[in-house]
Request: fold
Amino acid sequence: MSDKKKISLPAKLINGGVAGLVGVTCVFPIDLAKTRLQNQQEKAVYTGMRDCLVKTIRSEGFFGMYRGAAVNLTLVTPEKAIKLAANDIFRHLLSQDGKELSLVREMLAGCGAGTCQVVVTSPMEMLKIQLQDAGRLAAHQQTAVGRDGPAAITHSPPGQPYAAGSSTVPRRPSATAIASDLLRTQGLAGLYKGLGATLLRDVPFSIIYFPLFANINKLGQKPSAEKASFLHSFLSGCVAGSVAAVAVTPLDVLKTRIQTLQKGLGEDTYSGLIDCARKVWSHEGPTAFMKGAGCRALVIAPLFGIAQGVYFIGIGEYILGLF
Reply:
């Protein structure tokens, strides 16, 4: 019975969903700054995270920092639920007679979790990035128009439906409008643009994060207790999340660039992952691969700290116990 309870899928899905909703609500403005900083090419609009958030509030208002949050809040529940539940299920499947998992098996469990989650993560990120980057494009456009005149317009790669047209100010459609355009013109594959890049980011992240979290969290487990304390689980999630986030930042930069459909005047477009990596390296230098690393650590640390804290409290088990 204890094993059954240990891998109760409904409870784990509830825990992951609640944790994702709480975490995203807290850190979304920093995630927006990360996306905008990563999409900047040679002509920068923002000097850093603080400058980005201040300019966003000035030009778009307080809720401008939450542009794209509705997409995240809608899809983060299944995304986080799948990720956390899949890791536990894979750990259970890879365990042998109650023995502790070896590091290799922990990494394999993380790999499985990262692979499962991209079913939701890829379209979620695709839609979120377009909405988050709209403000940067507008600011970039105003600068370009002031310098180069009306000829400065945003552009999209050939065949992309989400184009700026001939206006000098990029339009800001809703997530449903973007999704409808992509589905109509490219089918389901349009929503999964950048799937390979998402896998290349999320699988290594999970391979690093889950074993690191498990081993740090184990340090806070007392012999008499089944779980570590909430505070220790929270801090373990923060540390493991920030380390994994910074480690895969170059892959996150490539994913963000590839999934961004609209580009400002003079900004590079990319035909794939290798083309993107080559152009970023040659036009912006190796440091461009670490753009938004600080923001990413500040997003992922509390996000996964909250996730693991809620997960270990067992809110899902409590809710199911009411029925």
Notes: The longest helix spans residues 103-148. Residues 1-5, 163-169 have pLDDT under 50 and may be disordered. The radius of gyration is 21 Å. Residues 220 and 229 are 7 Å apart (CA to CA).
